[in-house]
Amino acid sequence: MGGKAGEADPSLSLGSMTFAFLNADLHVWIEINLMGSVSTPPLHPITAESFAIIDREFGPHQIDPAEYAIIRRVIHTTADFDYRDRLQFGEGAIAAGITALTEQRPIVVDVTMVQQGIRGLLGQTFGNPIVSAISHPAASVSAEDAAPAAKAGQTRSARGMAACIAQHPKAIYVIGNAPTALLTLAEQIRAGQAEPALVIAAPVGFVSVVESKEAIADRSVPQILVEGRKGGSTVAAAIVNALVMLACAA
After folding, report:
1. Phi, psi (degrees; rounded to nearest 5) at 159
2. Same structural domain, 17 and 99
3. Is 160 found in the same domain as 37?
4. What is the pTM for the complete model shown?
5. Among 99, 97, 103, which residue's Cα sits nearest to residue 174?
6. Among 249, 29, 234, which Cα is nearest to 124's?
């Protein structure tokens, strides 16, 4: 597991994707040279103004530019600068996420609120299919009739997640609400039943939240994790949307 947002040169190369970053009037502009025909959706003027305010208040830094783009999107969503230090990026996680998006890998989410938060931008760009664990038929049946990974006493999110893993073991996994779904994913990774292209771990709350994040942090998979009790569906969606913007053609 990698550390928090680290230091990097202002320019970097991720496979066939070259990122060039310019700082002008405290606006951070991101140009992505990416093979393909997907164009970057324009920012709403209010969003652009909000980003400029965040840049000013954030102040000088040496955070990796791609990581900063994700951090800034989360701060924009939450108005909480505490996320400056709460987002952890596993080694190669951003590059893995970009590749999976451009390959149109399925995106498995734990709850429909995450789905609603990412479907608009994905629909304008890569069109990845989105699968909701809580909406899976297995989530509404008993553990005995659910996926083999399901256990007695599991939550609906966990049962649905187990079924999604069985169907999409190499998907992008985005958890913004249910720690039991993240724990199920961690267990299935350990058992060799899941090989996620990327895990975005952002459940929120008090019960099992920190434990679920610690469990996924111990797995050797590409991951972006929100440290501690904070997170939520809007945070998870913001991380996905930031990745989509990074993956789009200039």
Report:
1. -65, -45
2. no
3. no
4. 0.82
5. 97
6. 249
Residue 7 lies in a domain: no
Over 50: is that where the pLDDT of 36 sits?
Answer: no
Two structure tokens written together for 97: 């996420």
Digit-coded pLDDT (tens) for 45-77: 999 999 999 999 999 999 999 999 999 999 999
The strand ranges marked E within 51-208 are 87-89, 107-109, 130-132, 172-175, 198-201
Three-class SS state of 21:
strand
Strands (E), the chain: 12-14, 17-24, 27-33, 87-89, 107-109, 130-132, 172-175, 198-201, 223-226
Residues 106 and 141 grouped into a single domain: yes
Tokens describing residue 50: 């909000």
pLDDT in tens, 195-238: 999 999 999 999 999 999 999 999 999 999 999 999 999 999 99
One domain, residues 39 and 131: no
Catalytic residues: 76
| Domains in the chain, number | 2
Task: Let me know whether 153 and 50 are in one domain.
Answer: no
Domain region containing 151 = 93-247
Residue 87 phi/psi, 5-degree rounding, is -85, 125
Query: Are both 100 and 200 inside the same structural domain?
Result: yes
pLDDT category, 141, cuts 50, 70, 90? confident
Q: Are residues 24 and 137 in the same domain?
A: no
| 8 Å CB contact between 215 and 61 | no
pLDDT at residue number 189: 98
